[in-house]
Amino acid sequence: MESHIGEIIALFTAICWTVTSTSFELAGKKIGSLSVNFIRLIMAFFLLGVFTLITRGMFVPLDATVDNWTWLMVSGLIGFVVGDLFLFQAFVEVGARISMLIMSASPPITALLGFIIMGEVLTIKDLIGMTVTIIGIALVILMRSPGKKKMQLSHPIKGVSFAFLGAFGQSLGLILSKFGMGDYNAFAATQIRIIAGIIGFIIVFTIMKRWKGLKVAITNKDAMKKVSIGAFFGPFLGVSLSLLAIQYTTAGVVSTITAIVPVLIIPSSILIFKEKVTSKEIIGAFITVAGVSLLFI
């Protein structure tokens, strides 16, 4: 059990991602993905502040080193601003289920970046697991054209592209997090990343002149409830657990385990969003999980 503590924490992270992606899809369709992104970071900042005040005696991470702040800030800008900006719009375009399935492409991206930036080494078994994961994704998002041998996307290219860009942003953000965090407290490290995300979105809102839209979004009580749930399970608990997980195992392994979200999210897609999930999509999702399970063998 102890030898797999990082993997176990990653599994809890996947459960958090399932709850938060469903909540943010519902909220995003009401108030827009940009507003959801910014509001959830503000909420998460205060949640983390209260938590670290109780557990560490400080509301903000004043004990972090310059290196911690530098790399975690860069990680926050890339992961929370660039990566999540694309991911949350993908939620609106193709839904949370397909978006999170495509996000499963982040493991090979993370593994490659981990090798290039940090010199992390993955076993042949890990690589096989990641390959199986990608096959599962391809089965869902690709289909054969009627009467032709040519393959094409089964979902809008805009949403699929946004989800892949979100995967890249998440992967690079995760790698930079591990590089900048070291053995520093995972929750405090998450707060630094969120501070960077808030600064980034302030710039985005100012450039795009979207402050009026944010004021309107805040008055939507139903959407705000869903954002609150998503903020707790996402940038507060989920992200913190993901950083804690990579302190015990490689970033590539953590990223791969969280790929089970596409299967975990199927019930909510059917019950809440009334989506028609095809047998091919269910099989593809389970193939993805099969790839993840190889990491435990």
How does this model look, in words?
Helices cover 78% and strands 2% of the residues. The chain has a two-stranded antiparallel ribbon with strand order 1-2. 54% of the residues are buried. Helix 4 runs parallel beside helix 6 (157-181). With 297 residues, the protein is mainly alpha-helical. The chain has helices at 5-31, 33-56, 66-102, 106-118, 124-141, 157-181, 186-208, 211-218, 221-245, 251-257, 261-264, 266-271, 279-293, and strands at 142-144, 151-153. The protein has one domain (2-296).
- Shape descriptor: globular
**Uncertain spans, ≥5 residues at pLDDT below 50?**
none
Write down the overall mean pLDDT: 85
How much helicity do the residues have?
A: over 70%
* CA gyration radius, whole angstroms: 18 Å
Structural class: mainly alpha
Order of strands across the widest beta sheet?
A: 1-2
Largest sheet, strands/sense/barrel: 2 strands, antiparallel
Number of helices: 13
Please tally the β strands and state the result: 2
Give the helix/strand layout.
Blueprint: H1 5-31, H2 33-56, H3 66-102, H4 106-118, H5 124-141, E1 142-144, E2 151-153, H6 157-181, H7 186-208, H8 211-218, H9 221-245, H10 251-257, H11 261-264, H12 266-271, H13 279-293
Antiparallel strand pairs: 1-2
Give a nutshell description of this structure.
The protein has 297 residues and is mainly α.
Keywords:
single chain; about 300 residues; mainly alpha; two-stranded antiparallel sheet; 13 helices; about 0% strand; globular
